[in-house]
Reverse transcriptase RNase H-like domain-containing protein
Amino acid sequence: MARVIGHAVSMQLVMGALPRLFTRACETTLRERVGWNGTVAVTAAVQEELHFWQGMAREALSAPIVRLASTVGVEVRTDASDFAWSGVMAGQAVARGYLALAERVESSAMREMLALWYSLQALEGRLRGRRVHVLTDSTNARSIATKGSKWAHLQAVALKVFWWCKANQVQLSVAWIPREQ
């Protein structure tokens, strides 16, 4: 398992932050083992990550190291409050909604991740096949969307975002901006 993680991390030059997103469960499992020769519990999350890397190995070998930037890009600003979320696509569309009662008691990082997730879904038709640059005022959401999280519920949202982007051919980048901007 350590070897798989090592190979995955070595592909960051080609794949960006993707290896960080898809090695979280394996890394957690390795940290919990007693020693290098100790056994590890292969959870469903670990199996999913190993299966992902089994399929991605061939894909990564044929990817260019320098990616050509798409000329068609769009900017989306997302935000969340204690009870609502919004996403604004630069001068074109606004998506907004209320958080469910259970979501309102979540951490601010989770609410900001949900704002990102719900905004992408709501703007799907306008974003499909494009480069999407999301701006958020949450440094945690930027990090989680890019690299994943050690917390399972946040990691689950990050993976939903990844798979949505893959299905909709969206090249996503997420950046932090100060609240005042």
Q: What stands out?
A: The chain has a mean pLDDT of 87. The two ends are 43 Å apart (CA to CA). The longest helix spans residues 44-61.
